From TrEMBL:
<dbReference type="InterPro" id="IPR036717">
    <property type="entry name" value="GFRP_sf"/>
</dbReference>
<dbReference type="Pfam" id="PF06399">
    <property type="entry name" value="GFRP"/>
</dbReference>
<keyword id="KW-0472">Membrane</keyword>
<protein>
    <recommendedName>
        <fullName>GTP cyclohydrolase 1 feedback regulatory protein</fullName>
    </recommendedName>
</protein>
<keyword id="KW-0539">Nucleus</keyword>
<dbReference type="GO" id="GO:0031965">
    <property type="term" value="C:nuclear membrane"/>
</dbReference>
<comment type="similarity">
    <text>Belongs to the GFRP family.</text>
</comment>
<dbReference type="GO" id="GO:0044549">
    <property type="term" value="F:GTP cyclohydrolase binding"/>
</dbReference>
<dbReference type="GO" id="GO:0009890">
    <property type="term" value="P:negative regulation of biosynthetic process"/>
</dbReference>
<dbReference type="GO" id="GO:0005829">
    <property type="term" value="C:cytosol"/>
</dbReference>
<keyword id="KW-0963">Cytoplasm</keyword>
<dbReference type="InterPro" id="IPR009112">
    <property type="entry name" value="GTP_CycHdrlase_I_reg"/>
</dbReference>
């Protein structure tokens, strides 16, 4: 999967949402992410306690690059892309 979305609330201290239930398990394991389902949701998300800057640094180390970033209300979202099809 060449694309990853990560997001956090505007405070920038974490937690950081790093994937959904269809995310590559090897990348989620590399990030140390835990999978959870919020009460009332019918989908799961992966989260880490680290701030987004540290997550972005980790993803850069395995070949991901930021394609875009935006703010949506109180949420910040980054889209990253990896050129190769290798996960790790």
């Amino acid at each position: 999967m060449p694309y990853i979305l990560i997001s956090t609330q505007i405070r920038l201290t974490g937690p950081t949402m790093v994937g959904d239930e269809y995310s590559d398990p090897s990348i989620m394991n590399y990030l140390g992410a835990r999978k959870s389902t919020m009460l009332g949701n019918n989908f799961s998300e992966y989260h880490v306690d680290e701030p987004p800057r540290l997550v972005l640094d980790k993803l850069e180390q395995i070949g991901f690059r930021v394609v875009s970033m935006t703010g949506v209300g109180q949420t910040l979202v980054w889209c990253l892309y990896k050129e190769t099809s290798d996960s790790l």
